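Amino acid chain
________________
===
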Amino acid sequence: MLEVKVRVGKKRVLVIPKNIAEEVGIREGSIVKLSVQGKNVVIEPEYDAIWLSLRGEKVAKISLKDLEETSLEEQSKHIT
């Protein structure tokens, strides 16, 4: 487990060290979720669909043919 101490800056700004940000896929412009658990502040990355498709856990398999068919079906729902 990576663990570091950081100083809280002006306006309570926290800078996430590069090695930790890279470990969890946080970069400039990333969205993170803050939550409070007891006396702890938890910071979790919110991954977008592109990040998940490239780096996220794979939960299903689909053939290219099925993918194309599904894509065309979904697109046809939005074409007027």
